[in-house]
């Protein structure tokens, strides 16, 4: 993994993106040379470069929007083929629209050839990557220090198919005084030093997953020997932050938040974020204005009730405000005045509301909240005061998410399903803590791309 502006990205995914950008630009230039040949005018080189760059950027955006850079190492060819066709169809549509806005970008009748060559190049690159990803050279070998609950969680994360890297956990080193929670087959025999174990099993990293570190059995000296001997030693909290974009609350030490860096609340960060909020909200408002008008008319036709739904939510520093949404439930959804979680197949949702939620159209009026300064475009989702009070009592560090403005979209929204319980709230909080700690313009842009993918796929809506 590579850390860019405090956010961890897959090294393989980044290399793949840069390589495919070059391939797409080459496909564009080659198409122009094949089709137009010597007919290029004296100003063609500049237009050629601009057109090639636009072609590469548009298609890279389309592939990113369909998640083609999220799990590159673990993709099979069926998944690649299922995504590459709609990605290039979307790219074709976006490029055609862009050509009407920027006259210098042109492909003429050869546009289809550029997409064929670019698609073939991307497919060939992914075949090579998929083939090499099966080799042991692309696999990270880990040893977990500890065999308790935290080790079990690390074991599950390493085996998860959703990760951007492939891991093999050699085994877990038991620590005296900790109840074993991992399969017996994964427990390594005692008596050998950690450094010797790492070298014998060709492990590249030790992940310290010990719950209680105040015990005298905690192997401080052996871990130091490993670090001095060239074996990477990583704390479990850092492992989750790096590989899952989560800060785990069940095993979190306050010192990790205090001394772990991040939490940028500077004037520069605030100014950049506010500029991004206004620019993104204004652009989306303009682009989706026809959609919002149609949504409003459909709501009126269905039951004649109010189009906009207002509800009190908790924002930055615990301040309350009225969030605005297109109404997706019946007018008597909470006639008894009792707040309740939304559930899968919620009967309170109207027929129009079902599609508004599925396509995230119901969230669009919140752009007004952004313009008012009550919300950001990206941030933790604002929750109702009733649930905030309940979750604040039951979940440690829950109030940390209120140190920044809530957002229309956020890391938890694109990485986890719709929250409908306290357990869901805990899991979403772990993503929110990561965002609060590592937020940056780069991370906002990554979340915006993921949001496009979620909207196109309809994931997580209720």
Automatic annotation (TrEMBL):
Gene Ontology MF terms in the entry: phosphotransferase activity, for other substituted phosphate groups
Keyword field contains Transmembrane helix: yes
Subcellular location field: Membrane
InterPro entries per record: Bact_transf, EPS_sugar_tfrase, Sugar_tfrase_EpsB_2
Keywords, ordered alphabetically: Membrane, Transferase, Transmembrane, Transmembrane helix
Presence of the UniProt keyword Translocase in the record: no
Superkingdom as given in the UniProt entry: Bacteria
Pfam families: Bac_transf (PF02397)
GO cellular component: a single term: membrane
UniProt topology in membrane: Multi-pass membrane protein
Residue ranges of the TM segments: 12-36, 48-69, 81-106, 112-131, 278-302
Residues of the Bacterial sugar transferase domain: 273-456
Location, primary (coarse class): membrane
Family annotation (PANTHER family): COLANIC BIOSYNTHESIS UDP-GLUCOSE LIPID CARRIER TRANSFERASE, UNDECAPRENYL-PHOSPHATE N-ACETYLGALACTOSAMINYL 1-PHOSPHATE TRANSFERASE-RELATED
Family, per entry: Belongs to the bacterial sugar transferase family.
Name of the protein this chain belongs to: Glycosyl transferase
